[in-house]
Amino acid sequence: xxxxxxxxxxxxxxxxxxxxxxxxxxxxxxxxxxxxxxxxxxxxxxxxxxxxxxxxxxxxxxxxxxxxxxxxxxxxxxxxxxxxxxxxxxxxxxxxxxxxxxxxxxxxxxxxxxxxxxxxxxxxxxxxxxxxxxxxxxxxxxxxxxxxxxxxxxxxxxxxxxxxxxxxxxxxxxxxxxxxxxxxxxxxxxxxxxxxxxxxxxxxxxxxxxxxxxxxxxxxxxxxxxxxxxxxxxxxxxxxxxxxxxxxxxxxxxxxxxxxxxxxx
Length: 265
Ligand code: ZN
Ligand code: FE
Prior knowledge:
Blueprint: E1 6-12, E2 16-22, E3 27-31, H1 36-45, E4 49-54, H2 60-63, H3 66-75, E5 81-85, E6 95-97, E7 102-105, E8 110-116, E9 125-129, E10 134-138, E11 141-142, E12 145-146, H4 154-165, E13 172-175, H5 180-190, H6 195-209, E14 217-218, H7 219-225, H8 234-244, H9 251-263
Parallel strand pairs: 3-4, 4-5, 5-6, 10-13
Antiparallel strand pairs: 1-2, 2-3, 7-8, 8-9, 9-10, 11-12, 13-14
Helix pairs in contact: 1-3, 5-6, 8-9
The structure holds zinc ion and fe (iii) ion.
Fe (iii) ion binds at residues 59, 61-62, 139, 176-177.
């Protein structure tokens, strides 16, 4: 099926992606606009009409542009709708979402299911569209890595990542940061014998040398190369046990060790 939508990255700060979903009517939706100025510049340059904003979690690099974009929409003669997580303290939301909610955008052209992903923050959510195979997952799953556990437990984060790993392999992962190369430097220390990881690393080194984005990734790829989706693998368990000098009976314990190794990498 030919997609009716374009998904473009707007670069913000040093390594954020603000995703812009555009329909065939030049309407657009922004995901996690931390910086309004780069969004307004992009919208004006491409002559788009902003209709909605989706927010995954409360961190300022994801919500910082909200107030200014709402004002900007008024200059475009439209009222925009802002969607975000119900259990986080974010001002200016019109709709507060929890898992199982479905939202429709662009006059019912585009539908998203809401997935709860506690871990990075306690109320973090993702937006998933089945027909476009697109997942907007903020700071939960990155290519080759995952978000830091600022508010959640390792158990919550592993559950959240496991949910995402059950999405179809061809699901495109639109995360909010270009962290891939740094993540893979770490991943290779965890799974030095993973040949798919090695070839993806070679690929990513080349892309980054040309300043090309590595995102979107896919769920199928991440399951093969991302250590945080692979805490059940015996090689990773073994390494985590060696590094921590203890027996790790559960995937959660393995995951927690890998996450703390990454925090100190
Ligand atoms: Zn964040
Ligand atoms: Fe972030």
